[in-house]
Specification:
This protein has 192 residues and is mostly helical. The chain is globular, with a radius of gyration of 18 Å. Helices cover 68% and strands 2% of the residues. The mean pLDDT is 91. The two termini are 31 Å apart. It has a two-stranded antiparallel ribbon.
Length: 192
């Protein structure tokens, strides 16, 4: 429980560092905080290589997703460009930061694709609206942008949780304890 709360708190600090850094013309600030968060995250992982791969895939998915939003003209970012026409680096850092939550504070969405879809469908657009209100980005065509964000996040979030379950660096590869204890209980009762 303590790891989950720490993970949630670090995510919030990183999210605000990315958003407010971009809003106030310091887009490098967020990625610096995210780098520290990633170091802390990987230091606590049982299998850090697997978790690092998950974070890299989160970054790649985020880069493609936000670049598509940018290329359609539905969103715009004031700064943080690293490749012409691509999502800014601080936004990609936020996807890495989000990846740190998949196997910890948001692991309750593992194996629940419809709930993950719903969470992404609603939460994705709300996060971008918050970022816009704080000045980090602009939804150029608000209606189409919100629809694209809802559908996109609704599809991407179940994918990310599927990847997180496959690449979970916070388990030793065995079944979760609650499943193992349930099986042991059934064997004792003669159901196994």
């Amino acid at each position: 429980m303590q790891k989950m709360l720490l993970n949630y708190g670090v995510f919030q600090v990183g999210w605000f560092a990315c958003v407010l850094g971009a809003a106030y013309g310091r887009p490098w600030l967020g990625p610096m905080v995210v780098s520290l968060a990633v170091g802390l995250h990987l230091a606590g992982a049982v299998r850090p290589r697997r978790e690092a791969l998950l974070l890299a895939l989160s970054a790649l998915i985020g880069l493609v997703f936000d670049t598509l939003l940018l290329q359609t003209g539905w969103v715009d970012y004031p700064n943080g460009w690293w490749l012409p026409g691509a999502a800014p680096y601080w936004m990609v850092a936020m996807w890495v930061l989000f990846g740190t939550t998949l196997n910890l504070s948001m692991r309750w969405l593992h194996g629940r694709p419809w709930l993950a879809f719903t969470f992404g469908f609603i939460g994705g657009p709300l996060s971008y609206l918050a970022g816009e209100r704080l000045g980090a980005m602009m939804l150029v065509q608000t209606g189409p942008a919100l629809v694209a964000l809802a559908i996109g996040w609704g599809l991407v979030l179940p994918l990310l949780f599927w990847l997180a379950a496959k690449l979970n660096g916070f388990t030793n590869g065995n079944r979760p304890e609650f499943i193992m204890s349930s099986w042991r209980k059934n064997e004792v009762q003669g159901h196994g």
